[in-house]
Amino acid sequence: MRVVLVGFGNLGRGLSRAFIQKASFLHRSYGLIPRVVAAVDEFGAVVDEKGLDLARLLEAAEKKGTVAAAKGGKRGKLAIKVIEDVEADVVYELTPTNIKTGEPGLTHIKRAMRAGKHVITSNKGPLVVAFRELDSLAKRCGVEFRYSASVGGAVPVIELARKLLAGNEIREIRGVLNGTTNYILTRMTTEGAPFEIVLREAQELGIAEKDPTLDLEGIDTACKLVILADSLLGMNAKLGDVRRTGITRIGPEAIRLAQEAGQTIKLVGIARRGSLEVGPKLVPLGHPLAVGGTLNAVTFELDLAREISIAGFGAGPKETSSSLLGDLIDIHRTLGG
Amino acid sequence: MRVVLVGFGNLGRGLSRAFIQKASFLHRSYGLIPRVVAAVDEFGAVVDEKGLDLARLLEAAEKKGTVAAAKGGKRGKLAIKVIEDVEADVVYELTPTNIKTGEPGLTHIKRAMRAGKHVITSNKGPLVVAFRELDSLAKRCGVEFRYSASVGGAVPVIELARKLLAGNEIREIRGVLNGTTNYILTRMTTEGAPFEIVLREAQELGIAEKDPTLDLEGIDTACKLVILADSLLGMNAKLGDVRRTGITRIGPEAIRLAQEAGQTIKLVGIARRGSLEVGPKLVPLGHPLAVGGTLNAVTFELDLAREISIAGFGAGPKETSSSLLGDLIDIHRTLGG
Q1: ipTM
Q2: Which of B149, B231, B161 is nearest to A312 (CA)?
């Protein structure tokens, strides 16, 4: 399968490493041979219809900060041109998230679909801004559209609901969808430390960003909740539809009281038809949402199975490549490969 | 799809109720119309090629203890005859588990496959005794073979690994696979009560059986571990290959020490290539295996995603019908329905 990578930051590089590491496994297990025919980033592009040498591409990009530095690479704003002109089966849209405009991912995805290419993305921005539009466009263009990595990183939340809980109706979705806030709340619980100290520690470890607003105020969680609501509950929700409270006012006192009651405090996104909410919630110890550290977890409330929960790592380039690769295998299988 | 139900105990009845409840949902969502053309139990059978009236069948069977009591029903040992002679697409094998001989399920499954019928089962017995034989037989006969409900009840453990973690290699499987022992250990932890008291309580609630040996000694967990190892790790394991310790010697002291260390004691089955083990293990609070009550949970250790865990209810007729129905939908989709 001929693949174009748009965006070559952590995720694009992680996926490339997975392609190298997994080449013989993919061929042996699924008869799948991913051939990366182009890679683009904001500074340039490199194209080789016979398939790029990924090890060399990684080396060049890591040394010089752009794929344009690879042999045969060109500098310039080339994303649209590559997406439209290079012959390929699948476009990976892996550029940074902008939750206000969805750009540049939104345009990349639309252009790819209109050019008849299947799209796999990890980018929350386009989905939050225009889920329904993209979903219909994919259908109209007759292409596959996958976005497993946009929610839960490595955790196949959306595919679980679509493929494995098929006999059930989903009544509610509850999720611990942000690793940074989960790390902070977990450390506050295990260490009894105050919020500011733990936040600083998380920033030093690279778990929290310098400006941690998107995480701490529950905006990242709200984005993922919108994607779950739109893709699994048939809603047409936008970020503004989510009632939202962050974790910045959670003190050691609240944590201690929860502990005494056999509970733990988590930042939980809750979606049911007609209602979207993000806020700190008590979760009983022993409940599958009560996962610690940077883990993500999602619980589906269902009419037959009652509750099914899934948990795993919601971030990290290697972990996320599990979902990005899974989507490619799924498209390969869907097309009868 | 024409369906034969072999076994009409709790699971057969739960599945029938799900067929009734979900009829319009299945038709609308998947174009799937399950038509139960026969039901058999140890006392007799009832056949109607136009499709049985499930509400009446349930009523008759619940009143008189056998499907033979339904209108048109016949008494006698009729399972094999029905499996072989009634025209049908899928045979559900839902008879009680015998982990020594696998019978009568083993014979039922083989006969159904040889008669060209797809098979869905919840029955651990045949799988533990003859996984590889049944797996090859299904392939030779060109039929689908599904057994989601045999491990984890409602929790789609096997399908998760096969379908959603496809890019990963599984390095290890760890599972809390028995709801009874999990309930007992959880109550011992939350109440500080001794084993015998909690066991009696569980027996009164119907969570533990009168003879709880299979659960307490880890035999049920070992059976499920064998099925996971054979189906997901390509092993050809038997029950005797599992090193096994039960939970009967866990005292309040051990529970208390674990708690002090931020851990909890669970009966865990651990499978990796060449090694199968069941025994009480410490699990850190906050780990996805540290689920309470009667929940089951399984953690896959993977090369890309690191760890993915899934949890839910491992028993109960309604819950299990989620898996039994999911298998039917999956066969329907696989056959291009």
Answers
A1: 0.96
A2: B161
